[in-house]
Amino acid sequence: xxxxxxxxxxxSQLPQLILNSQADRRLKRGHLWIYSNEVDVKKTPLKAFNPxxxxxxxxSAGKPLAIAxxxxxxxxxxxxxxxxxxxxxxxxxxxxxxxQALALREACxxxxxxxxxxxxxxxxxxxxxxRFGDYLVVQMASAGMDVQKDAIVEALQKVIKPAAILxxxxxxxxxxxxxxxxxxxxxxxxxAVELVENGVRFLAPIAEGQxxxxxxxxxENRAMLQRLAPGKRVLDVFSYVGGWGVQAAAAGASxxxxxxxxxxxxxxxxxNAHLNGVDETMKGLRGKAVQVLKELIAxxxxxxxxxxxxxxxxxxxxxxxxxxxxxRHMNELAIRLLARDGIxxxxxxxxxxxxxxxxxIVRGAARHLDRHAQIIHQGxxxxxxxxxxxIPETDYLKAVFARVYLP
Length: 407
Description:
Transcription Regulator spoIIAA; 3 domains; globular; alpha/beta; 19 strands; 5-stranded mixed sheet; Rossmann fold; 7-stranded mixed sheet; single chain
């Protein structure tokens, strides 16, 4: 049996999770994760906990450190939600956290279109909430958050007062925590909702699209593309619903070609192009990116700007070598399609790919083709994806803008 903390120290009778000697050092520096091999399982066996339970994390000497949500079957068996042990994770704490997160977003954005909650960085590990005006899309990726589903919904309704909430808990991350996948609508949720990014209107397919239906993280990088796009011929590879391509067209690009393997995605590109009155500027090409790029090269096509924003090629450490090879290959193909003094926008959402490695890939791809690359801009994620300084995994997004030319 786990040992309960004295009632005078916390409002609820939470059990203890005692750490091994020195295992608290990383937590004291600000990290939020506890690995299963850091727990003193003789004093507090993990099997005594159910997924989603809360516990007071204690040092090996028994000093209370924080409250964490527990999943005894996961490698990351504990995730800190509060360093004040008097306040466990409940509706009251969720309301407080949501208000803190909302204050940041409202300070940074003039319109209600952003990622409202970004997991660990907002001290709510395993929870993501995207806001589309009066609609919210929620994803829960930890057992602790899943247990709090009703409290999360009630707290969001209190703080945001949305017209409806869509729980998109149909993502693979839930399997790592042993959670079932499901989708649930709370209120009348449309298949697509409108958002505005950098002054451009979009319909995000929240019901059937990828993740929450939209990727807010590249907002600032797309703004940079808008500054470069006027009068240019642009190729948007892995376009999804046209986040990059439609913004380039709206900014005055002479022609934009979007490439995606999904026919549905290209239909959404068309809808978003129409929404912004740039139908005549946009063209879609359906197919696997590598094959389409090779065909365009064979046809002698040239573009002033090529945008590469692929899915994560390196999802796990074991994918490192093959993933880096895939990035190199894609960047070389893209450079071969660049016109004189063209701009390559090379992005990566692979957390395991370091920023310097992406720079080296761009440099190497250019030199392999006997060209010179000038880095004119490096971008990351926007303010609605704040980085937790103790958790490198929260700093995942990279975008390199390079002029590539023959010296």
